[in-house]
Amino acid sequence: MSEAPDIQTLSFEQALAELEQIVARLESGQAPLEDSIRLYERGAALKTHCETRLEAARLRVEKIVQGAGGAPAVEPAEFN
């Protein structure tokens, strides 16, 4: 079995796709217990990585919409 890529090197889209595969595998109930635990741990790390990437994107968008002098040109972006 090949080594899984380091989570920090994954783009948001890659991490989300892998997380979706893990969820599907766990939901199927076909993975042995030890594999399920390992998958769950990786899934939790992928979830955190995706949340971090989304927050960074939200901050970038907020920075873009700031008007001259720091006043918001439009309402801050909400991604909840």
What's the structural blueprint in terms of helices and strands?
Elements (H helix, E strand, L loop, with lengths): L11 H17 L4 H32 L16
Helix pairs in contact: 1-2
Key descriptive features of the protein:
80 residues, mainly alpha, 61% helix
Strand content: under 5%
General form: elongated
Give me the number of helical elements: 2
Structural class: mainly alpha
Can you walk me through this structure?
This protein is mainly α and 80 residues long. Helix 1 runs antiparallel to helix 2. The protein is elongated. The relative contact order is 0.13.
Gist of the model:
This protein has 80 residues and is mostly helical. It has helices at residues 12-28, 33-64.
